[in-house]
Amino acid sequence: MTERQIIQLLWDLGHFRNPAHAETWNVAPGDIDRLRFGDAVVKAAARSYQEFMAVSLEPLAAMHHGRLPVYDGEVGPATRELFTIERCGCPDFAAAVDAATGGGSWPAGCRPQLPQHHAITVNVKPAGMPAFLQPVFGAVWNNVAAAYAEIGLKLIREDGDRAANIQVSFEPLAGSTIGLAIVGQGQRCSTSIWAKFEPGYHPSNVIREWTSLVKHELGHNMGLSHSQGGVMNPSIVPGLPVSWIGDPSAPILNRWFGGEPVPVDPHGPEMWVKQCLTSDRGRELCVPLFPPRAVASA
Fold it and tell me: Residue 126: CB partners within 8 Å, gap ≥ 6?
């Protein structure tokens, strides 16, 4: 990437708006074309990006320099490569929004079959879905739906519904962007927003990494911003579990959706199975099995 492209990327991804680097706050859109790497405000923005993308920068620094990264805003070999890594195109810092927080989530009671639960519809448009993803997208979707059901949100596929709450499409995205989504704010039952995915993103483990990618972009639809590490890290963290449990964004999702599993099938004779442990003092701890298992109810 050129110097101009990198500075523009820093602007587009919000690193001139990092609350921790007040020296960049006076930069306006008209200033971008005259800025250079040596300028103090650009170094501050680059340092912000280095810090925010530390999970990806650390292995690059080890490869290029044989050491841990130095967060100094200098665009050396490791940092230059950092700007080319495939990542979500949503800004890391948006105006007046703190990192890893948001005002999103969907209200309970939107679906009559689940009046006490959070449930929304999703329209996955098949046009543009890459051939390598088509045979396994069912497994990807089952992982994503199970992860959200575990924290209290039911995702209902209603393909072909143009009024569905989330419209999922596959279309070429600019540069190294592999996903892009509307960051939900104050959604209602009738709200319809979108999530887009780069069809050229072909990781070595398609099911695992596409599970993380779809969870990530739908996380933006819920109202989440980027976090450092975990599912909402701007670039894909390899090997993440299907579950949201233990993720940096889990407390936010649990607060929004209750953290209690929703029924697998609200119409069928099924129920969630829990595993319970009893201490020698009679205290009992129960957790839902994951992946969820359904059994015939009595």
Answer: 159
191 touches 219 (CB < 8 A) = no
Nearest one of 147, 166, 170 to 156, comparing CA atoms: 166
Q: What pTM, to 2 d.p., does this model score? A: 0.82
- The continuous run of DSSP H or E covering 267 comes out as none
Q: 272 by DSSP, 3-state: which?
A: strand
Q: Which long-range contacts (CB under 8 A, 24 or more apart) does 273-280 make?
A: none
CA torsion sign, 174 to 176 to 177 to 178? positive
Please choose, from the candidates 92, 94, 132, 137, the residue with its C-alpha nearest in 3D space to the C-alpha of residue 227.
Answer: 92
In whole angstroms, give the CA distance from residue 242 to residue 144.
7
Distance CA 291, CA 11 (A): 40
CA 88 – CA 94 distance, rounded (Å): 14
Neighbours of 3 (CB within 10 A): 13
Q: For each of the chain's 298 residues, which pLDDT tens digit applies? A: 999 999 999 999 999 988 777 777 788 889 999 999 999 999 999 999 999 999 999 999 999 999 999 999 999 999 999 999 999 999 998 764 333 334 678 999 999 888 889 999 999 999 999 999 999 999 999 999 999 999 999 999 999 999 999 999 999 999 999 999 999 988 999 999 999 999 999 999 999 999 999 999 999 999 999 999 999 999 999 999 999 999 999 999 999 999 999 875 544 433 444 555 666 666 666 555 444 444 433 3
> How far is Cα of residue 205 from the mean position of the Cα atoms in its chain?
18
Nearest CA among 134, 59, 92 for reference residue 228? 92
The per-type count for the chain, helices as H runs and strands as E runs, is: 7, 10
